[in-house]
Amino acid sequence: MQTVAGALLSLVMGQPSEGRPELTPTAVMAGRLLAQRLFGGSSDLMDYDKVPTTVFTPLEYGCVGLSEEEAVARHGQERVEVYHAHYKPLEFTVPGRDASQCYVKMVCLREPPQLVLGLHFLGPNAGEVTQGFALGIKCGASYVQVMQTVGIHPTCSEEVVKLRISKRSGLDPTVTGCG
Question: Any idea where the Pyridine nucleotide-disulphide oxidoreductase dimerisation domain is (predicted)?
Answer without folding.
Answer: 51-163
